[in-house]
Structures are given as structure tokens and as C-alpha cells.
Amino acid sequence: MTTAEDQSVSGTSDAVTAGSHATEIARSGAATFRSGGGAVDQQRAAAVIGAALEGIRGAIRDQKVTYEEFDAFKRWLIGVSDTGEWPLFLDVYLEFEVEKVAAQTQDGSVGTILGPFWLDGQAQLDSPATLPMRDDEPGTPMILAGQVTGTDGKPLAGAKVDIWHTDEEGWYSGFASKPPAGNLRGVVTADAEGRYEIHTRKPAPYTIPLDGPTGQMTLAAGWSPWRPAHIHLLVSAPGHRTLTTQLFFTGDPYLGNDVASADKPELTLDPQPTGNGSEVRSDRDFVLEPE
């Protein structure tokens, strides 16, 4: 992940480190919070796999793909495997479509993609909470607060708000060498009224890793590699479906051109000054549907 200041510096995004960590998480299945997970019958497998392959075959026919291009594609696939970037590629370019399908049968607050950078086992904190950070953590101090309720409007006491985001330089802890382990990550327990308050730093926009095959493909196609600044959240409570979502910021230059196609107008925050120095605050309530 790189910011505007370092996107042109070769080798700063460390695709191999990020990719290998994301691959291990995806392989364990630890990042699966959505419904499903059971065995897929043969007929369903044949239908989905067949449709995917036919889509690729159709592209070959329509675009009259040459052997040189086909060989380049094979080398690119090998590169994705060698760097462990499959979770990154799939989450950036395909997950948003899966999320759209899932959203058709879901109620409650608006969700979006999980992405490849969630980590289990983070600090357990009670609200009001301050996320783990360096003593001199850069960035604008920010408070995110709100209430978690069910679709019936009743507060969900003790709801969990699992939160993670980049630092001001665009780095996720656990996926780059710069931030310390657990930096700007935590699982916050709401109070008896379902209310939470989280003190953190405002994240920055960043590019997906540019030194790996996913970034190279993106640049080769002339697409923007940028993600708007955002905060990831998993909001959960017993007996309710876990909400997977992200929150973005008004005025971000990459809104509407998110490489992961994950930003939505309903998920945009407009933080306001608190009067405490440069600190800003946004309030966001979440509504969870029953399982």
C-alpha cells in the first residue's frame, strides 16, 4: 500500500509480504463471516465454474487473443501465485460483485467488501476505547462513535465493533514492516445501550501494492490503483448477522474511482471538529438484522 508521497518509489509496497499474509488468512478461512460455507453440490459447481470459464473463452474470442498475450497471461497467473496475491486480486476485482448479490437479501445497515487485510486476535477493548497506536502516531485525531441496534430498533448490549485501517502513510499493520503489530486495530465492546466510542487517527488514501502482479496489471490497463481513505468494520452481536462494511470520507479525491469498487454514498462520513485541537468526530449508527 502506498500513498501519494511514496507511490513512485520502487519497492515500497512490499507485495510479497502483504500477499503471503493475506493468503494464509484466506487459506484458513478465518476471514469468512458471511453465510454459507457448506459443501457445494456437483451441479452447482459445474454451473458456476462453467460460466466463469465460458466468460474467459468469450473474451478470448471477442478480443482475438494472440498466443503472445495468452503466454503473458500465464506468466501473470504464475506471478500472482508466487507473491500470494490471489486474495488481493480477488477482493479488489471480484468481491464487490459477490457483495452486491448478497446485499439483495440482506436488511440492516449498508455493507461492502471485507478486503484482504483483516486480522484475527486483535486487542479486546471496552468502549470508550483508544486503538493501539504508536506514542507519536501521525495523523488527525479522530473519534468514531454511535449505537448498534437490531432492525426492531432495540439496542444491542455488548455488540462488538471490530475495526482496522491504515495509518497516515497508507500502511496496514500486519501486512507491512512499518507499523508495529496490532497498530490501529481492535475489537471494541459497546456498552449496555449498544453505544461505542473509538479514538483513532484518520486514515489516508493509498494504492494497492504496485510492485506485484495485481498492481502491474492495473497500471498496464491504465486503471487507477487508488483506494479512497476508509475504515474497515465488522459489527456483530449474538443472534444477528455480522455486518461487514467500510466508512469513507467526504471530499476524498478517489471517491467514485475506487480500485476495489467498494465505496458507496451511504458509507461516507463528514467528520467535524470537536474543538479539541485538530481532533474531528463522526457519528455512525449500525443496524443488524437477525440471523
From TrEMBL:
Which intervals hold domain Intradiol ring-cleavage dioxygenases?
144-172
| InterPro entries for this protein | 1_2-CTD_multi_dom, Catechol_dOase_N, Intradiol_dOase_C, Intradiol_dOase_core, Intradiol_RC_Dioxygenase
Task: Kindly give the Gene3D superfamilies that the UniProt entry links to this protein.
Answer: Aromatic compound dioxygenase (2.60.130.10), Catechol 1,2-dioxygenase multimerisation domain-like (6.10.10.40)
Q: Where is the composition biased (Basic and acidic residues)?
A: 280-291
UniProt cofactor(s): Fe(3+)
User: Segment Disordered: which positions?
Assistant: 260-291
Per its UniProt entry, which superkingdom is the organism in? Bacteria
Segments forming a coiled coil? none
Record's keyword terms, sorted = Dioxygenase, Iron, Metal-binding, Oxidoreductase
Which Pfam families does the entry link to? Dioxygenase_C, Dioxygenase_N
What does the similarity note say? Belongs to the intradiol ring-cleavage dioxygenase family.
Please report the name of this protein according to its UniProt entry: Catechol 1,2-dioxygenase
* Organism in which the protein naturally occurs: Actinomycetospora endophytica
